[in-house]
Write a structure and sequence with these properties.
This protein is mostly helical. The protein has one domain. Helix 1 packs antiparallel against helix 4. The longest helix has 27 residues. The radius of gyration is 18 Å and the shape is elongated. It starts with a helix and ends with a helix.
């Protein structure tokens, strides 16, 4: 039984590592996500919720589709953290601690 649990944690660890590397790439290096060099240095927004607030504020200019895509994309991108966290941390087994 303990070997099975260890195998599940190892598989979860490998999946989390792959997920984290892919997420890191898309957040900081992906040219498809607007991180291209066009005669200036790379720029990053590291202020939490700043971009979402900007999308909500200018939803009439950007369109509701862009706003929903941004918000749902953020939820989908970071949802796996909620699944992996209870696997690695004994303190986060309950829903409210994870949330």
């Amino acid at each position: 039984m303990a070997a099975t649990k260890r195998g599940h944690r190892l598989a979860a660890g490998i999946l989390f590592l792959v997920y984290f590397v892919v997420l890191f790439y898309f957040l900081f290096f992906s040219e498809k996500m607007g991180r291209t060099y066009s005669e200036r240095a790379y720029h990053y927004n590291l202020v939490p919720l700043k971009e979402i607030a900007r999308f909500v504020k200018y939803w009439r200019v950007l369109g509701m589709k862009a706003v929903l895509l941004n918000i749902l994309g953020n939820v989908a991108a970071f949802l796996p953290f909620g699944f992996f966290l209870p696997v690695f941390s004994g303190r986060c087994k309950k829903f409210w601690r994870t949330a």
